């Protein structure tokens, strides 16, 4: 406080400076024990970004020599990490310099936790790739560099670490530089994402060339790591790209207000802008850009706003509002790079859920074009992707989705795959090419004498097999069954209190599952005297009043559609 | 200290052609996106409202996210019975002002049995009055998603949190096996009984929170501002004279100019000596701080990793 009172502090000036600061998000990468966490700890320590009590709490602990702080303990915040001396999951840390604010994702190097590295890199603009000067480039160094590039991280800063252990010798550094630079160029070619690189010799432990330039390596005249981080272009500039706005919610507080809430994924929108809603393709003009702080004339990515349109269009969550002159493609089939992140390997033709912007829809991997061997960068024929493997797939979407190529738009080109049974996030996906709507609409050629496939059943019945639980008054259940039947679906009723089911508790689930497997809609019903109908499917549920049957039935249809069971909104009457 | 307290609204103005958004605007936009996602994807979300500065910011963000509609979920306050009277009055007033439904949950059995941090240790006391109460409340109302105002910069196990933090059917966190969380695509799928804790302020720092409160004129409890308050002084610690404190024989409270840096239960929240009586003064003080905001919290310091242990057990 003394310094502040002697030099009068003006909050206005301080906040003014704060407002001038831009933001850079970066992550770490590299093999286990290469010194990532130590480097981040050192960077925080040398920029006075850690509090005294935090430093006190790690003194005398960790793996380093007596008297030497183990800086990795500043970010390795889990007990298991401290016990094992490795990073298990990403730590997010924050610091700022006079020029810029930083969000750091310190990621694990261990192969088992590669998906956590991908988590950290997915939102990063730059990655600091560590290489242990004594060990050189390892397979994990390559894998991380590849994933970072695939995720569109443009700036790869290679920190050749532990220079103190190799006598700060220039030839060690140059050898790694001349091996890694061409490799990174090949990776960039393979992923199709341009990479800009820098090489810096550092010692994270001693602090050489981390926050400050070091005297230990007079042969190196380049900047310290922090200088490079301060001089990179700020977080990706998203306003240059065409306008994209995934609708998160329809806001309808009263009759006279109907707006669409979302976060601008890219570009700029203005009052009067002509937009198109996808996948329906309907157009309209923006009449208001509403925020709590007042209406805006323009709004730019990544602001969260609410848009109002000049006409009543059927717009709901998951739709994409886009610039009318540069719309994305509504695709039923996309080509995408996948990073597989689950113990259970990828299964072709299995049903997964794609989560893309604000929508979730069923999809299946129709074909695996190749797997990339990150060691050799060769494209290999493969029948599946296992944990941490990377490949290129063709994905069939059961509903059209408005997508861009990931290289063109990081927000509308990215998706995750979810396993609908375990609910695990099983893959990160990046769209590399799209095929327009009609091409994929053609049904796959059926074998004239072969078995009937699930896809053919789906095409005929308009739904896939599923178990749907219905609890409510008998008339309500009848109405739901009737309406499903009338749209061509094949519902089969299984009453919970049927004697056989009561006698054999395992029977009902087994029967229901068998029906679902055969592509039918197994309605597991229990009637009661209430005035509400409860419906559940795929872990989702609704409760709806039965007073207005049309409304109730529509709610159930919507549930089944959103769960990816009913395939076509039109056919479901939505 | 020369301070100019007013900040023109235009400083944070959203308007105008593609101009770089400030750091606070970026954080705000990200948080609003998260709030809306949860409201759209979960059946029964709830917002944990702890009355502190972070909750105040989170509540304002919720108002912004759903404007011009109302906040589409209730607020839940877990009252340990050791909250400052000012906090409770503030809580009720805020809920009325924003027009949100307020639920208050207390572990009445433990409170009646006299649970307090002196008789029990702080860990067991927190376990009963906070963690158990929270888990009971979530189960009672069947909430499937709960917003918390925790920030990653608060503590090093929190730095490991996802924005959507998966909890099993016992409400427990498994930090060694978290779901990958890429881009801003949050996996909201859960089986019945499981739930998600959601942290919309994950990427905010303590400084961001105070600057935002300042720039947005967000009301916060008076306890954050310095004034003369009666305190028991023990070494460096200033212990409030609210309920639940057992004074040593002959110990008398003194009037000390002080404030709270973070709000918790009165027996376990130490105050700090401070002259910062306005928001600009708090921000100025923050720049000069040498210890973290939780350094005055007694609970975090019981032993190494105590926050992680509490979080695994179901605490926020
Ligand atoms: N001599 C020396 N040792 C270092 C240096 N940087 C890190 N180390 C040591 O290397 C070991 C591993 O460091 P970490 O920072 O934990 O490595 P990491 O890359 O974060 O490891 P993971 O996160 O588990 O992948 C520790 O014992 C560090 O003290 C360095 O510059 N010089
Ligand atoms: Mg590490």
Descriptive account of the structure:
The complex is a heterodimer of chains A (574) and B (316). By secondary structure, chain A is an alpha+beta fold. Chain A folds into 4 domains: 9-234, P-loop containing nucleotide triphosphate hydrolases (Rossmann fold, 3-Layer(aba) Sandwich), CATH 3.40.50; 238-323, Elongation Factor Tu (Ef-tu), domain 3, CATH 2.40.30; 329-441, Elongation Factor Tu (Ef-tu), domain 3; 454-562. In chain A, strands 2-3-1-4-5-6 form a 6-stranded mixed β-sheet, sandwiched between helices. Chain A has a 6-stranded antiparallel beta barrel with strand order 7-8-13-11-10-14. Chain A has a 6-stranded antiparallel β-barrel with strand order 15-19-17-16-20-21. By secondary structure, chain B is of the alpha/beta class. Chain B has 2 domains: 23-218 and 305-313, 3-Layer(aba) Sandwich (Rossmann fold), CATH 3.40.50.620; 222-301, no CATH class. In chain B, the strands form 2 sheets. A 6-stranded mixed β-sheet of chain B has the order 3-2-1-4-6-5. In chain B, a hairpin with a 2-residue loop joins strand 7 and strand 8 (237-240). The longest helix of chain B has 20 residues, at 122-141. Chain B is globular. Mean pLDDT of chain B is 86; it is low at 1-18. Bound molecules: guanosine-5'-triphosphate and magnesium ion. Guanosine-5'-triphosphate is lined by residues 30, 32-38, 63-64, 70, 72, 86-87, 108-110, 161-162, 164-165, 203-205 of chain A.
Mean pLDDT of chain B: 86
Query: What is the terminal-to-terminal distance of chain A?
Result: 64 Å
Overall form of chain A = globular
| Structure class of chain B | alpha/beta
CATH-defined fold name of the largest domain in chain A: Rossmann fold
Whole-number total of structural domains of chain B: 2
Topology order of chain B in helix (H) and strand (E) letters: HEHEHEHHEEEHEEEEHH
Approximate shape of chain B: globular
CATH class call of the largest domain in chain A: Alpha Beta
Termini distance of chain B?
Answer: 38 Å
Work out the largest interface and the residue count of each chain. Answer: A-B, 92 and 82 residues
* Number of beta-strand segments of chain B: 10
Q: Which spans of chain B of ≥5 residues are poorly predicted at pLDDT below 50?
A: 1-18
Q: So, the CATH homologous superfamily of the largest domain in chain B?
A: HUPs
Say how many strands of chain A there are: 26
Proper CATH architecture of the largest domain in chain B: 3-Layer(aba) Sandwich
